[in-house]
Specification:
With 149 residues, the chain is an alpha+beta fold. It is built from 4 helices and 7 strands, in the order ααββββββαβα. 34% of the residues lie in helices and 23% in strands. It has a 7-stranded mixed sheet with strand order 5-6-1-2-3-4-7. The termini are far apart. The N terminus and C terminus are likely disordered.
Length: 149
C-alpha cells in the first residue's frame, strides 16, 4: 500500500470513529429510560415546590468521581433573562422527579433557598477542598429537619 493510500485509509478510519462517536453521543443525549437520564438533559430542567410553583432550574450537576453518583444539583435561581442570577447548590437527595410536572420537586421553602449557600457566575466556589460541599450539606441538614444527610 502506498504512503498516500495508507494516509487516506487512516483519515477515513479516524473520520468513521468520530462519526460513530458523535452518533452515539447524540443518541445518548436524546434517549432516556424511566430511571436514567443524560446529564445534558437534566441541565435546564425546572425545579418546583410541592405546590407546583417554579423555583428555578437545574444549571448543572456535581458528580462524585469515585461513585459516579450525583451529589449536588446547581440550581439557577432569581435574576431576569440570566442577569443577576445566583447559583444554589442543593444536595441531590432533596430533589425528586415528578413526571407530571416534567421537573424536579423539593420540599424546601424558597426562604431557605435564598438564605442558603449561593454564588454568582463570576464567583464560582472552590469545590476542591471539600469545605464548600460540607457547608452546603451542613446548611441543608440544619434547615430541613428530616432531610439530614
Amino acid at each position: 500500500m502506498s504512503t498516500q493510500t495508507q494516509g487516506t485509509a487512516m483519515q477515513n478510519a479516524a473520520s468513521s470513529r468520530h462519526t460513530s462517536s458523535a452518533a452515539i453521543n447524540a443518541d445518548t443525549s436524546r434517549d432516556e429510560t424511566r430511571s436514567l437520564i443524560a446529564a445534558s438533559k437534566v441541565n435546564g430542567t425546572n425545579v418546583y415546590n410541592r405546590q407546583g410553583d417554579s423555583l428555578g432550574s437545574i444549571y448543572d450537576v456535581m458528580i462524585d468521581k469515585p461513585s459516579g453518583k450525583v451529589d449536588y444539583a446547581i440550581m439557577a435561581f432569581g435574576g431576569f433573562l440570566g442577569m443577576g442570577q445566583n447559583y444554589h447548590p442543593l444536595p441531590w437527595h432533596v430533589l425528586t422527579y415528578d413526571e407530571h410536572l416534567g421537573g424536579y420537586v423539593t420540599d424546601l421553602d424558597p426562604k431557605y433557598l435564598q438564605g442558603g449557600p449561593a454564588y454568582a457566575s463570576s464567583d464560582t466556589p472552590d469545590w476542591g477542598s471539600g469545605e464548600y460541599g460540607r457547608q452546603v450539606d451542613d446548611y441543608y441538614a440544619r434547615s430541613t429537619p428530616g432531610l439530614g444527610l
